[in-house]
Design brief:
Rossmann fold; seven-stranded mixed beta sheet; alpha/beta; 9 strands; 220 residues
Length: 220
């Protein structure tokens, strides 16, 4: 599958966005510190390019209700909270240590009241959600993206945006380079997600060459 996207830079055998290793000028000093600390501990957080786009689109759309799957240490949730003062964010994290650290970061950033952090498996949590959201940021286990899609469509308001992170996966998904054996199943699942999102009659979807790849879907 070839999406026709240009190559990324290479680091340690896997390609990443060229801005991933630098502080983002779009983020505050506090958020850049959280991001740098997470990177040093090899905790997966979005790169600067992705976070800048996330901040930009939330600023533009001004979604009142946001759902995030994959809190990690709370960086992307904090970026969204800062991008629109009127947003209320529900974020889901299954790792209790990440959740505890995220709560600490939210308190330190004075945004704790804007964010409802739910600990648990995303599949179980979203099954129990009923109220619709204006914006959904999907950034958890990539192999589960395709499994979550029907519920995410159900939970998205008409005109709402679903943004899925890491859908180009170091260029493997776009067919730019041979996929390592250990990545084949993951790449297959991501390709399934892209195919489903782009062919769904309920969504208008485009894949963006931002960060490690973003699939942006609008509910029709």
């Amino acid at each position: 599958m070839d999406f026709g996207y240009p190559h990324f830079n290479t680091m340690e055998g896997e390609r990443i966005s060229p801005t991933a290793q630098f502080n983002s000028p779009a983020l505050s000093d506090e958020l850049n510190k959280i991001r740098a600390d997470a990177a040093l501990r090899e905790i997966p957080v979005s790169d600067g390019e992705t976070l800048n786009f996330l901040k930009t689109i939330v600023t533009a759309l001004k979604p009142k209700k946001i759902l995030e799957l994959g809190t990690a240490v709370g960086l992307s949730a904090a970026v969204m909270a800062g991008a629109f003062e009127g947003a209320k964010i529900t974020t889901v994290e299954r790792d209790e240590n990440f959740a505890a650290e995220a709560r600490k970061n939210f308190k330190n950033l004075n945004i704790y009241s804007k964010i409802d952090l739910i600990e648990g498996d995303a599949a179980d949590v979203i099954k129990g959600l009923c109220d619709p959201f204006d914006f959904i940021f999907l950034d958890c286990a990539k192999v589960q993206y395709i499994k979550y899609l029907p519920d995410l469509i159900r939970l998205l308001n008409k005109g709402g945006v679903l943004l899925a992170d890491d859908v180009l996966l170091f260029g493997y998904v776009a067919g730019e380079t041979e996929v390592p054996k250990k990545r084949r199943a993951l790449v297959g699942h991501i390709r399934e997600y892209i195919a489903a999102a782009t062919s769904s009659p309920q969504l208008q979807t485009t894949v963006l060459n931002i960060g490690n790849g973003l699939a942006m879907s609008v509910k029709l």
